[in-house]
Write a structure and sequence with these properties.
nine-stranded antiparallel beta sheet; globular; about 35% strand; Alpha-D-Glucose-1,6-Bisphosphate, Chain A, domain 4; TIGR04255 family protein; 9 strands
Length: about 240
C-alpha cells in the first residue's frame, strides 16, 4: 500500500505557455543574463553551467550529471518558459518551484511585458519500487490474458472544473491532469508521471494575475487526495499473477 509519494520523487517540471512573442527573441541574451546573474536567483551557473543556443528564438540552460545521467534544463523560447529538473540535489523541489515564480513569473515576464498567458503546467515524476504494487499493476492492467508482457504504458487524462468558471461570466478556465504509468521489461520499478495543468480562457493579460501558489497547492492536493487513492484502490486488492 502506498501512503505517500514524496520520497519516490525523482524530478519535476514547471512551465508556462503564452502567445508567441518576439520580445523573447529580440532580448534573449539579456534575459539569460538576468536569470543567471540576478542577485537572488536560484538559477546560477552552478545549476546551469551550459547554454545551448538552439536557434534565434530559443536558448536552453542545462547541466548534466555524468554519474547518474540526470539532466536539468531551463528552456526559454518565444512561447514557453519550462524548468525541467532531474537532479534534485542541485535544485530541490521547493527551491525550484519558488524560483520559477520569483525569477520567471514575477521578474522576467514583468520586466519584458510578456503576457497573454494560455497555460500553466506542473509535472511530478516518481519511481515506485514497491514489488506488490508493481506486480498488481501488471495483473490489473493486462489481466491473465497475456503472459510475459514486455512493456506497459498506461496514460489517461481528466478535466477538472474550476469554481470560478461556474460563477464568473465569460470565464471558462479549467484544470486538466494527465497520468502516465510505465512498466519496462526486466526493470522492477514503475515510472509515474502526473502532469497537472491550468488552462486560461480567456488568456490572462499578465503574469501578475496568476495565482501561482494556489495552483501548486491544488496540484499537490490532487496527488495526495486522488492519485494515491487511485493506485491503492485500483491495484491494492488485485491478486498478483
Amino acid at each position: 500500500m502506498i501512503t505517500e509519494l514524496e520520497s519516490s520523487k525523482v524530478g519535476y517540471v514547471v512551465g508556462i505557455r503564452y502567445r508567441k512573442t518576439f520580445t523573447i527573441a529580440d532580448n534573449l541574451g539579456a534575459i539569460v543574463d538576468n536569470i543567471l546573474q540576478s542577485k537572488n536567483s536560484k538559477f546560477k551557473a552552478k545549476v546551469f553551467p551550459y547554454i545551448q543556443h538552439t536557434n534565434r528564438e530559443e536558448d536552453v540552460l542545462w547541466s548534466f550529471d555524468n554519474k547518474n545521467g540526470a539532466q536539468n534544463k531551463l528552456t526559454i523560447n518565444t512561447s514557453n518558459f519550462v524548468l525541467d529538473i532531474q537532479n534534485l540535489e542541485t535544485l530541490p523541489f521547493k527551491d525550484g518551484v519558488d524560483a520559477f515564480n520569483n525569477t520567471i513569473l514575477k521578474t522576467i515576464m514583468r520586466d519584458y511585458s510578456i503576457g497573454h498567458i494560455d497555460r500553466l503546467g506542473f509535472v511530478n515524476r516518481y519511481i515506485l519500487k514497491d514489488k506488490d504494487i508493481i506486480e498488481k499493476f501488471v495483473s490489473g492492467t493486462v489481466g491473465r490474458g497475456f503472459s510475459e508482457v514486455n512493456d506497459i504504458n498506461l496514460q489517461f487524462s481528466k478535466r477538472i472544473p474550476i469554481i470560478t468558471s461556474l460563477v464568473k461570466e465569460n470565464v471558462n478556465d479549467y484544470d486538466n491532469v494527465i497520468v502516465n504509468i510505465i512498466k519496462k521489461n526486466n526493470i522492477d520499478e514503475l515510472f509515474l508521471s502526473i502532469d497537472y495543468q491550468h488552462y486560461y480562457s480567456p488568456m490572462l493579460e499578465k503574469a501578475s494575475q496568476i495565482e501561482y501558489n494556489s495552483f501548486i497547492d491544488n496540484a499537490e492536493k490532487y496527488i495526495n487526495n486522488h492519485i494515491i487513492g487511485f493506485l491503492n484502490n485500483t491495484y491494492g486488492d488485485i491478486k498478483s499473477v
